What does this fold into?
Amino acid sequence: MSTVTKKVFATSKLPHNTGVSAWVAMLPTREIKPRLERARTADVVIVGGGFAGLSAARRISQLEPALRTVVLEAGIIGEGPAGRNSGFIIDLPHEVSADDYGGDCASKSQQDIVIHRRAIALASEIAVEHRWDSRIFDPCGRYSVAMSEKGDAHLVAYCAQLRKLGEDHRLVDAQEIASITGTRCYTSALFTPGTIIVQPAAYIRGVADCLREPISIYERTPALAFESNAEGWTVKTPQGSIHTGKIILANNGHAESFGFFKGRLLQIFTYASMTKAFAPGRLSGERKWAATPALPMGTTVRRVAGQRGDRILIRSRYTYNSMQIVSEGALKRAGAQHDRKFKARFPGLANVDMEYRWAGGMALTLNAVPAFGEVEHGVFAACGCNGLGASKATASGIAAAEMMLGYNSELTQIYRRFPAPKALPPRPFTTIGAKANLRFREWKAGAE
Ligand SMILES: Cc1cc2nc3c(=O)[nH]c(=O)nc-3n(C[C@H](O)[C@H](O)[C@H](O)COP(=O)(O)OP(=O)(O)OC[C@H]3O[C@@H](n4cnc5c(N)ncnc54)[C@H](O)[C@@H]3O)c2cc1C
It folds into this structure.
């Protein structure tokens, strides 16, 4: 009689969200889906209710509507990184340094654009279903803004690459960007029209809320472990369990907590602050705009118009946190940096305080590829968002669902070609190297 060894994967830690995200605080309280409190069966279990997990569930419902799919979210939908980011669903490659465009980089950029536009297509379908207005989903494009000669030069180099790629763009001079943003701090900008700007918590709640039976979502229900059995897998949660044939791991950096991609994911956190509402007349320019920095590692800024007044979002600072937890002290230090950046850009609003501050995790890989593919029989990973997760994680969720169902698409062909994430150097070296690298790159970004 042959015996099959049972495989068990248990998580070593659960996600923790530090700080209160303004995006959640500004919405009505969510009607939270119940916890799983029984044993049940399903065809597919998705671990994680962020961009990747919910997009995977939606794609499954389109391709195989009869499949009983369960989404397990450890926290509350919208409170994790997918709902606490800056809300840019970006179409073009993010890293705009000329170094990224040598050799065969044009074809890599084109591939990235296919990935990002597939995500934008899904987001746009959902926007139509919900009849969202521009407060939640705004196809208004974005500005890349420079504050130094180095930043200006970077934008000019990026323009040349966009021309080669045939992508629409427009250089904006200092005067015009001042008339849009109401601040004279920017020396030039580049407008690209394809980015979607969302209220991220409203968006991700909306993605969840358009999933219907036979898809079930359980919130405040972490997957603690999964073990193999004769028919597939049993996923254990604190008060229940699910027998399933297939699993999609869509829990980004926490794939590593289950033992997958060990020593291959860089657990990077970034931080944001949002001001109190101020009277719109206090800042000239348009009441809504969104800007990413010309230089990677710089500062993202958004002006958000609301009924009670307008607010400014500042997102900057990256830290390496291998244990995937950010302390209140780290949040405070990032907040002090945000205050300085805010004052430098908006001296006329110097007495407007920040109301919310928060942090959130991203998982990067050394070779910038996703942590993707069938990692065990019937277990698929759609993790390692590499920063531009609103686009990349959405696409990897779609690709994981398609691959799991044996569906061939342009996206699955791209994802099949990705190499595995490279191994990081041993822990002490990674820690020292990552911290030094982040500091150096932040220093290089200077005022940007
Ligand atoms: C402040 C900030 C600003 C950002 N701005 C942008 C931006 O403007 N544009 C952009 O593209 N990206 C941005 N990002 C990055 C982006 O938010 C992430 O890349 C993206 O959320 C990754 O999506 P995901 O679905 O892979 O993972 P996540 O959004 O992290 O979702 C994974 C989910 O899995 C859940 N989970 C983990 N473990 C378990 C478990 N054991 N059981 C059940 N559930 C589990 C988590 O609670 C989480 O909700 C930003 C991030 C931050 C923090």
In short: Residues 96-102 have pLDDT under 50 and may be disordered. The CA atoms of residues 163 and 265 lie 34 Å apart. The chain has ten helices and 20 strands. The longest strand covers residues 309-320.
